[in-house]
Amino acid sequence: MKGKMKGVTLVADWDPKPKFELGSKDIEDRQTYLGSLVYRNPRIEIKEYDIPTPGPEEVLLEVKACGICGSDVHMAQADDDGYIYYPGLTGFPCILGHELSGVVVEAGKKAFDKQTNKPFKGGERVTTEEMLWCASCKPCSDGYPNHCEHLDEIGFNINGAFAKYMVLPARTLWSLEPLAESYNDDDIFLAGSLVEPTSVAYNAVIERGGGIRPGDRVVVLSGGPIGIAACAILKRAGASMVIISEPQEERAKLALKLGADVAINPTEVDFADRVLELTKGMGADLFMEATGLPEIVYPGIEKVIWEGRTLNSTIVVTARAEAKIPVTGEVLQVRRANIVGAQGHSGHGTFPRVISSMADGMDMTPMITKKIRLEEVPENIIELQTNREECKITCLIK
Amino acid sequence: MKGKMKGVTLVADWDPKPKFELGSKDIEDRQTYLGSLVYRNPRIEIKEYDIPTPGPEEVLLEVKACGICGSDVHMAQADDDGYIYYPGLTGFPCILGHELSGVVVEAGKKAFDKQTNKPFKGGERVTTEEMLWCASCKPCSDGYPNHCEHLDEIGFNINGAFAKYMVLPARTLWSLEPLAESYNDDDIFLAGSLVEPTSVAYNAVIERGGGIRPGDRVVVLSGGPIGIAACAILKRAGASMVIISEPQEERAKLALKLGADVAINPTEVDFADRVLELTKGMGADLFMEATGLPEIVYPGIEKVIWEGRTLNSTIVVTARAEAKIPVTGEVLQVRRANIVGAQGHSGHGTFPRVISSMADGMDMTPMITKKIRLEEVPENIIELQTNREECKITCLIK
Amino acid sequence: MKGKMKGVTLVADWDPKPKFELGSKDIEDRQTYLGSLVYRNPRIEIKEYDIPTPGPEEVLLEVKACGICGSDVHMAQADDDGYIYYPGLTGFPCILGHELSGVVVEAGKKAFDKQTNKPFKGGERVTTEEMLWCASCKPCSDGYPNHCEHLDEIGFNINGAFAKYMVLPARTLWSLEPLAESYNDDDIFLAGSLVEPTSVAYNAVIERGGGIRPGDRVVVLSGGPIGIAACAILKRAGASMVIISEPQEERAKLALKLGADVAINPTEVDFADRVLELTKGMGADLFMEATGLPEIVYPGIEKVIWEGRTLNSTIVVTARAEAKIPVTGEVLQVRRANIVGAQGHSGHGTFPRVISSMADGMDMTPMITKKIRLEEVPENIIELQTNREECKITCLIK
Amino acid sequence: MKGKMKGVTLVADWDPKPKFELGSKDIEDRQTYLGSLVYRNPRIEIKEYDIPTPGPEEVLLEVKACGICGSDVHMAQADDDGYIYYPGLTGFPCILGHELSGVVVEAGKKAFDKQTNKPFKGGERVTTEEMLWCASCKPCSDGYPNHCEHLDEIGFNINGAFAKYMVLPARTLWSLEPLAESYNDDDIFLAGSLVEPTSVAYNAVIERGGGIRPGDRVVVLSGGPIGIAACAILKRAGASMVIISEPQEERAKLALKLGADVAINPTEVDFADRVLELTKGMGADLFMEATGLPEIVYPGIEKVIWEGRTLNSTIVVTARAEAKIPVTGEVLQVRRANIVGAQGHSGHGTFPRVISSMADGMDMTPMITKKIRLEEVPENIIELQTNREECKITCLIK
Questions:
Q1: Hey, are the CB atoms on A342 and D333 less than 8 Å from each other?
Q2: pTM, two decimal places
């Protein structure tokens, strides 16, 4: 397919700070694993591109919907010295957008649809993992693609989905056809664009947190999109009580709508006391830490575990944070508790299980609080630097 | 507490068949692990007893509700030679009844309530495990009370709950107070009497079957009380599709009401073909075999696994059967599948999780299709020898 | 690298039996998943080939050692109608040989060494998985490469290692450099050629069997190369007793040398009675079934589990067999036992762990009972149709 | 059995500090869970006692060997204000000693030997868990006796083993008869007295740490008795490299003798750099933290995980410490790592597996560096307040 298309592109200057050294995976003037130490003066531009051509194991996708993620915001946001906020893998200029759904337009001969185990023929509705794992390094070979040593990321160092078309490897695509029973045509794509963030939450609480048993109690700290998705998943997994701790009212309400049973405003009540009260002194089996403020919230988590009577509590570290977690070993010992770190969304059967859960009624679309057109993406990315009321702003591409 | 009470008592003659030898746990003229080889001419009599007195680690319970279990029926049912159907642990005469709930009347000084970690004081609403595990043998010490080497069973070789009062060790009691938020006074006891059979199902699919991940597909074979409870638990655990296979319409309807998404009548359609069709060729992650007819149903299970594309399927053997399961090793190998056996309901945090699930809305009471008085228990046990339409007949004791 | 080389090639006629239908993965006249229904009149020929050229993610390997596997024997062996014995994936003509080690000669630019996470530069000593998993199908994406839906197999439908050179994807290679501390130059390659069969055993007992805890007791049925390797691995994993059941004396002795504590000749003593006697009535935690004769050996396994006092026994089905396993569900229930199927050797960190175990002293080379030259491979493959005394015949290629 | 015996008794004054409040499990003037806040002026006295009489589920034991534990030292050691060092459960006066072995002299009628599943008859050689779990509280019912809510501890609030006789519940006894194949008469008791501390290590690395797979690399921090036992267990479990980090030479040597492959002196070399060098940049799969100095050692552990390439590392917190562990969440996330707390030795099949490992050659007796008589216990407990060279001082009682 030939032609031109527009892409919402992040442009920034390669201007490494003095202390920066080119790492083993970095490429001079092209990409780095330490974005905030290198890229300066970010700006979002709508640029024109040739429609890309898929290789033999790839497909050309017509993008239908793509949500704005916090990392999009942080790539476009500069600190006082002009460096971008986002600290991770980046390679600019790059079309942004990685929470996407679309329709297969063309497919290489060796591009297989995992849903049918047959080659893509065009017309299939799909979503994709954001992480393009290499399938060849040691972590990938051992079954841990979220920890790929040669990772590319859509919309970070590989052109993303705020564009009419994009090329993707068949390997990371997942069919959205199972959603056709539960959603009409347009809504399939909205729901489909939420599979990726929902899978981040699923990977955190089910794969890394080890899941729960029906009847367990859980606490989710922070009602951002990942925390809200965790509430939905954990309620669906049989939690007898899902407690969301979130200071902002709109987010708490959304969490309650999607699965939480009770909301705590930790700026108004004592978090630990309230959790112990709600659980009649039992505490919780799983804590999802999604605030990124461990030094603030961890003592409360520890108090719930120490004073509660639940053994085997798992704390899932989901948000990134620079601050140390002040862990009291004795709490882990006396309560048989454990702490795990969570990263990514790939592998472990996560995407297909999120999709089949959505097909069976786990509706995440209320998380989309605003729908926009492609031309409106730049201003909305900027808007989200300050706006805390929208949960998910999603671009529909016609 | 002094006084008299009536108890629905199973009486039978100790008349061992020639091939029977007294086993290591058997007691001449008192109890055997091989009931159907020993006990003859069963009859149910309502006898008068002294109200029993609790020891220091025991409580006296006023029974409020008790369901009739299939094993009650089989203990009272004779074959052509007059021997009872029930093949397991039995010690007659014995008051029947083990699916019970009640109120604590008196408690020994060392009888602790696990819910509060304080001594029982009277008035607590509770249910009990049916298995009185010894807490001292190797399996109990290692954490497997369902496989206790010195087991007593309520209503089998220890007086049971078809009576106004009974004595129980505190160890096996579980508080029903959490149900007070969801049920009114009478219904707490009805729901509470279903905790034991629901825990049998929970132990099978969650503890022994390893549970599922949200989005998984499951098949339950047979819509008896245990199979129906499994449907409820697995739907609550996040199954995207719960398929019940059951020939009888009333039972299938009840399964659909409590959690199943689709029912198959295996006498009318090909079981395997239908499961593959419903799952769009994927098959299922968990099969709960509760029919007791392995030679009939297993080939169909195997076909679903072999032709379906799901790896890691688990088959949980729940019902007892004399027939061999004809297993094709290659199916387990090529599909990475496994077979586990399930027995019991004790330990592993099962009872408290079933109770907290019920408190959060997992309502099992539609399983009770008939309520009776104590005097009506004998005739209803007999009735159930032929009646296949009632799911659970429950005695309310006033 | 240009030039010619000789390859030990399996040639056979594509002559499908009447009942054969071309399957979804079969290619007319080129390959089939049902070898024994299609290929006739097998013969081994030493043919001349161009030295192959590696693609960007591949390496050219100089082969140093390659063992003969039972499947090599069965591909070259014809039944009374002339059809080959081997029932699985085959595509002839094909150079045989898949238990190999060698040295990297040339490498594509994107061919990374997992050991160093850097591109191969030539000179690295390596071995390979035999299974060329696709990394794109659903099983591969979910982390189960042993169940790849687009599998190629070295020496079955892809040219193998009974040749001076071969091309392999970097993805399936594993460095043997860690062995340099424990083996001298030649022996590295001998040990390295045993990594693949040892990994089949490791996958069976550790990954699929779930491993053991130090102090557990295990039984391995059949002292072929996989069974012997399992003895070595399980002893190393801390088994307090490894029992090998094997009728042939040479094999039993080899098992005892590599890790077994006791050997049973099941043709001379009652298998179950002897295991119970050796374990003082406890039975075993893990049974590795590698005989391929389930109807003969399974009743003995069941007797050990039923009469023994060990709970949670795992039976690992490792050998392929057409006969059904006659499983008594009650044994699985009463003893909390389970049956799993094992296939393959890829993924799950198996290869690197086998290599580091060998580097630390798990010496498998006594399994090599005969060393031969490339020209001697055909006659030795034929010889093994009847000879049961050799354990592993290995070709050294100079 | 009637008569008198001597017991090495810890006596101290009940003199609570002002901030102390009687806890729910404390008994005024009799026992407390906060020893160091209550007991003052400890002294060790050899007192005379009546030989105790066993109840129906108990046995009378003739003690044969008992090791001195660090907690014995800390109970007898006073700080500047005269309060004991030991912070946990204590009830004085109390005969000390909990790492013991002995011979059954008399047994209650319901005192069963788990090894034979028959009543004790006298003459059996046994050891015991130190923790007398109640078998009735919620943790015990759920299978977690190490977290019993009504715990008694031998030699802390229940008379211990520095005496000729003692009474113990059959529930916590484990037969040492399996050791008779590997040890002669006296050495059975020496080995048997080490089962308890070895089980603490086993519980930490196998039960709580999740064990390892053969070929994994492990690091043990601190070469006290528990750390040394962990080296022995992990080597036996198949670790390809066991690294002990211990500043004191005698302890490092003992660790090397019992299972460690390499010793690091962290006061002389950089711990993290050395581990990375030894493992060729891979890091380790399991870290056992037994120093009790988390703020000192944790940054080194984190560096190994961050810079190493091993995913899924587990850090087992084994030693008690008041200081916080300064955990960087991102390390757990990027490396898929986790932290667990370990406590106790009971349950989970640990004792019998330690005993069968010892019977198969896991010889821990080199840990006993000094043997003493009962009369010498008091002076040796005092001696160990300053002596860091002895590993285990064990009392033989004739």
A1: yes
A2: 0.97
